[in-house]
Amino acid sequence: MHLMPESADFQTRLGALPIATYEAGETVLSAGSRTGQLLILKTGKVSVVKENVEIAKVAEPGAVFGELSALLNQPHAADVCTLEASQFHIAEAAALIGDDPAALLYIASVLARRLDSANQALIELKRQVQAGPRSEIGQTIKKMEMLLSPAAASLVYAGYPYDPYA
After folding, report:
1. How far apart are CA 105 and CA 111, in angstroms?
2. Mean pLDDT, residues 87-106 taken together
3. What predicted TM-score, i.e. pTM, was given to this entire model?
4. DSSP assignment letter at 34
């Protein structure tokens, strides 16, 4: 059974949602705020900034913003600012997630891809650290692993048969 919904199918479902347009340089979501909304990128490009560090530039239609805030019932964790004129489908998070299992599955697949990418980046970083002298990078990795593994979970997960760095 294939669980990941097709992006095109989800995009079709978005047609019923209102669209908001932002000009270049506008803040779409602010860290610390609570909007209760999901923003799904239709067109344009944004920058995601957390603690004054740009963590991503996103231009992929269908990218979802505000999902962590909605799912974890917490304020937005990052600023999302437009880099060019951008359009977003706007949805009330509780309604979309609660009423549309396909939307919830789509959001889960987006988060799973993001986690997989983070895992790959962490593994590559660990390889680089092991190849060179121990440094602050190694200490930072250990701190990241401790912070991100509250119940003995690890960024290296079931998709990998073992942790080569253990």
Report:
1. 10
2. 88
3. 0.73
4. -
